[in-house]
Amino acid sequence: MTESETEVWADILNGVSQDACEYAFENWFRNGKFFPRPANILELVQTYASNQPREVCDDACKRRHGRGYDTNDLLWLWKKRQASGATKWTKADYEAAMQELDSKREGGAPLWRKIA
Hints:
By secondary structure, this protein is mainly alpha-helical. The chain has 2 domains: 3-50, no CATH class; 59-109, no CATH class. The chain has 7 helices and no strands. The protein has helices at residues 3-12, 18-31, 38-50, 59-64, 71-84, 91-104, 111-115.
């Protein structure tokens, strides 16, 4: 490769982890029939990334796990909204429904809602 081609590849792969680059190029050289285009390598980088475990939330988020509304709460709220028949809810409608929901929950409203 020429120096300018090397610079183009370096620019394209800027910010891609070494592990992802190694995976992509090793996979391409094992299975490819011609010298890869950037799109070929970037597709393999994406494949690598999609197979890696992702950190969805930070420590502050993890501390709140299990302390807020859960799926059942949201389903209750959704059914309440659907049963109302109204095409639009106002902020007051939502607040009234949330207060009703909080009154039915064991332990009441989540802490973040009590503070707000």
